[in-house]
Fold these 2 entries.
Entry 1:
Amino acid sequence: MVAALLAGCAKPPEMQPVLGTSAVVDAMSTGSINPMATGLRTAYQPMPAMPSVLFGKLAGRTLTVSESGPLGLRPGEIILTFDDGPRAGPTESILETLDQFGVKATFLMLGSSAERYPALAREVAERGHTVGTHTYDHVDLSTLSNHEAIAEIYAGQQAVAAALAPDNLAPSRFFRFPYLAQNGVIRTSAVESRFIVLDVDIDSKDYYTETPQQVLERTLARLDEQGSGVVLFHDIHLRTAAMLPEFLKALRERGYQVVTLRSSGGGVFDGPVITADASSAGSEI
Ligand SMILES: [Zn+2]
């Protein structure tokens, strides 16, 4: 038994920093933050910067998936996802907060947003977050024909790929349906085209006109009910950016771990293209 326990503890989660003692983390995580430790922050930052190493306990394992379907999250594991961005302002703030807490998220970008803010799209990827796509212009795909829907999915994927390309970066295979609106035919076509459909377990409903505190409390309550899951946020809302530090602090205090999500294999264009319109089959992105 002792050996098994030791074996279980001997392999820390990926990305977890090496610390002298865990007591240091506990002491710091429950104490007040020393603003004198920050030389780079302005008074407008929602929380002073601390070395992300102090927040390492929140970062969980890296989960690499190859197909749509259940992710096999363990109790206490959550995946953070942010849809509809990037957008100047909230996305930048969210990136700062994620860095401060030392965790990685998945950003399902709109092609139109990536075209508008290509440098910000690259910034998301450069900071080690996973970039997926969410159509070009947030169309309800369930209202379209199969070919139209797949063309819209590809248009989004291509626009995000174009934004990332200058840095030799590429989007992952993750795709999320706008409004979570889908039908079996379109979902099957997307899967056959090598997209990995990323579903949602916990909807923060951060698109409601509410206070950050209301979003925070609802999301934590849903998470505590379920105990794990994929959480949906949107990095286009200032209320989301505003609540995120408190949300991550609460996750850490409650013992959750934020799992880093990655897709395996090559890009979506390595597989068959299930659309009448796509012409990029075989492209190396
Ligand atoms: Zn959306």
Entry 2:
Amino acid sequence: MIEKTDYKHLEYISKSKKGLFESCPFAFKISYIDKRPQEANPYFIIGTDVHDFIDNFFDVVEAMENGDLKNISKLKFHPNLSYKKNVVKFEIGRWKDLQAQGFDATYFNPVAKEKKYITESPKLIGIVDRIHKCCREDVFAPKHEDFKDGDLVIVENKTGKPTPKKCKKYEEDMLWYKILAEIVLPELAPIKWGAIYFPYNNYVYHTVLTNKDCRALAKAIRKVRKNIMACVNTNMWPATPSPQSCRWCNFKSFCPHMVVK
Ligand code: SF4
């Protein structure tokens, strides 16, 4: 039986909690109630590596004297993996473009850097990768008639190959970060734009972040929280196996409901 004091933290919803519960409540129970360790996931390890590298890159750049970035191309970032070379090349190109247009380092460095944010109301958890002040010609800026120099863009780093389906799916992540960032950093609101950066391909996907879409996401989050609490209260966690959810499930090796090998 679950003690009431043990599940308070379940009211705090993260993207992964929402995704796992929507995919299969039984998998959610194994992970968050039974706290069964997950098998090492190579994609997760690569994702962490990419985020750490980009975060450290801006640590180094921000520490440069007086924000003087003219020697950026001489910095050593140990680019021993191809995506690291891509990131450095991409950022040097971005810096040169900004300079050529007369924009300073405030347009290059993030306004907010990778950080785990937790809000009390609504109870949300998430990591916002970075937020950049952009000019119209910045590679992170969408080519949208309403976009103005100095507007903020939330930039999310994603590994893997960009596909239209993946990019569409990630739009929800960007709305999640908008909600979090505007609550935790209200001085930055409203943030109307999002960009997903794929370092393996140096590809950028743009999205418009609207309050209407944020309200729809907030409604979906409330529903997930309510359903999680209903499962906690009844201690009933239905399995909802499907080829898609079971294929990527970390618990398929022992789950009796699994439908794929
Ligand atoms: S293997 Fe399938 S049914 Fe079992 S927990 Fe995972 S997603 Fe649910």
